[in-house]
Design brief:
By secondary structure, the protein is α/β, with parallel strands linked by helices. The protein has a single domain, classed as Metallo-beta-lactamase, Chain A, CATH 3.60.15. The protein has 7 helices and 12 strands. Strands 1-2-3-4-5-6-7 form a 7-stranded mixed beta sheet. Strands 8-9-10-11-12 form a 5-stranded mixed beta sheet, covered by helices on one side. Strand 10 and strand 11 form a beta hairpin. It is globular and about 55 Å long. The structure holds zinc ion. It comes from Orenia metallireducens. Keywords: Hydrolase. One of its GO terms (molecular function) is hydrolase activity. InterPro entries: Metallo-B-lactamas, NDM-1-like, RibonucZ/Hydroxyglut_hydro. Pfam families: Lactamase_B.
């Protein structure tokens, strides 16, 4: 695990476990040390990894309550919720429903990747459009894309967007076929006053990652995505075409 300071009050925890086990990606958990709360965006693969973050928060940001956010329901972003059982856990309402419906099954399928003893804990509180913590300068908002229930977090103080798996280099994976909504989400991201963009997996970036991903999603909506058959994109692109029924 690697810790990177972002801006004045952000800490990025990057985990290498999935990269080492053949998935080929690092995974990000983003922590914002705001005025009265500490926000934890996504919880990776379980308590073993999240205990380190919890301890870091206890040592460095003592006494502040923790609020957890799930960007989407996928197993590699929510299994650590059980480390924060006494905290509020936020998500979009579709995300919570997906966790209730699908997380136990995903835990069985991918159980070898658990980091510690995982209990599935669904979000305790949901929103439909957005939820702003005005005193904290932090907003969570609905951003359908990678999944129908995906949401994002923006820190206005540092100008940081945490986008979960809606953004990925070089192109994102689709798990939902509504690419028009995906396009609108990425266009909305571009309007935000942020300089730093953090995807659920991979390197910290800036708006160029949003632009690259928007170009790809737009090419899918226009059926003009041939250039993505090049090797760098090919594997993910073919999976996306399959999901869209275009293969
Ligand atoms: Zn993921």
């Amino acid at each position: 695990m690697e810790i990177t300071r972002i801006g004045r009050r952000g800490m990025l925890f990057t985990f290498f476990y999935l990269q080492d086990t053949g998935f080929g990606v690092t995974t990000n958990v983003y922590v914002i040390n705001a005025k009265n709360y500490v926000f934890v965006c996504d919880t990776f693969l379980g308590p073993e990894s999240m205990k380190e973050i919890k301890r870091y928060i206890e040592i460095n940001f003592r006494d502040k309550p923790i609020i957890v956010f799930n960007s989407h329901y996928d197993w590699d972003h929510i299994w650590g919720n059980c480390t924060f059982e006494t905290s509020l856990i936020l998500s979009h309402e579709i995300c919570r429903n997906n966790i209730i419906d699908k997380a136990e099954q995903e835990l069985e399928i991918y159980s070898e990747h658990r980091r510690g003893e995982v209990n599935i804990i669904p979000p305790t509180n949901t929103f439909t459009d957005e939820l702003t913590f005005y005193e904290e300068g932090v907003k969570f908002f609905y951003s359908p894309g990678h999944t129908k229930g995906s949401a994002s977090c923006v820190d206005f103080v540092d100008g940081v967007l945490f986008a979960g798996d809606n953004l990925e280099a070089p192109i994102p994976y689709l798990q939902d076929g509504d690419i028009k909504s995906y396009q609108r989400t990425l266009e909305k991201y571009l309007q935000l006053e942020v300089d730093t963009v953090i995807p659920g997996h991979g390197e910290v970036s800036n708006k160029s990652l949003i632009e690259d991903n928007l170009k790809y999603i737009t090419s899918l909506t226009n059926n003009q995505a041939e250039e993505y058959l090049k090797s760098r994109y090919k594997e993910v692109h073919l999976q996306n075409l399959k999901l869209l029924g275009k293969l």
